[in-house]
Write a structure and sequence with these properties.
116 residues; mainly beta; 8-stranded mixed sheet
Length: 116
């Protein structure tokens, strides 16, 4: 049996931009991606702490050390710049692996989105 387990979490970052005129995705500062063990094109779930929206999209890398968190395409309608979001990625694992797995969870500075 496979379980869907939290693999990565970027806890409480601020949306820097919402770009409706893009084909879709979330752009994330590559430093944050690396720290949270998230890769380009990976599916992520996003929770908007300001309005309660929950949605999924895929990741594209943003400029390193920029603090970029940009929702693109239709997802741009679910956020406003300044909203605080949580970004999570999950992985399928066997029960034994899941019991011992430790997700990569990071807590960037919410004002700058930089690693503390």
């Amino acid at each position: 049996m496979l379980l869907n387990i939290l693999k990565s979490k970027i806890h409480r970052v601020s949306v820097t931009e919402a770009n409706l005129n893009y084909i879709g995705s979330i752009t994330i500062d590559e430093d944050l991606m690396d720290a949270a063990n998230i890769i380009a094109n990976e599916k992520v779930s996003i929770v908007n702490n300001n309005n309660g929206e929950r949605f999924e999209t895929y990741v594209i890398p943003g400029e390193r050390n920029s603090g970029t968190i940009c929702l693109n395409g239709a997802a741009a309608r679910l956020v406003q710049p300044g909203d605080v979001v949580i970004i999570m990625a999950f992985a399928m694992m066997e029960m034994d692996e899941a019991k011992n797995f430790k997700p990569a969870v990071i807590f960037p500075d919410t004002k700058t989105n930089k690693l503390i």
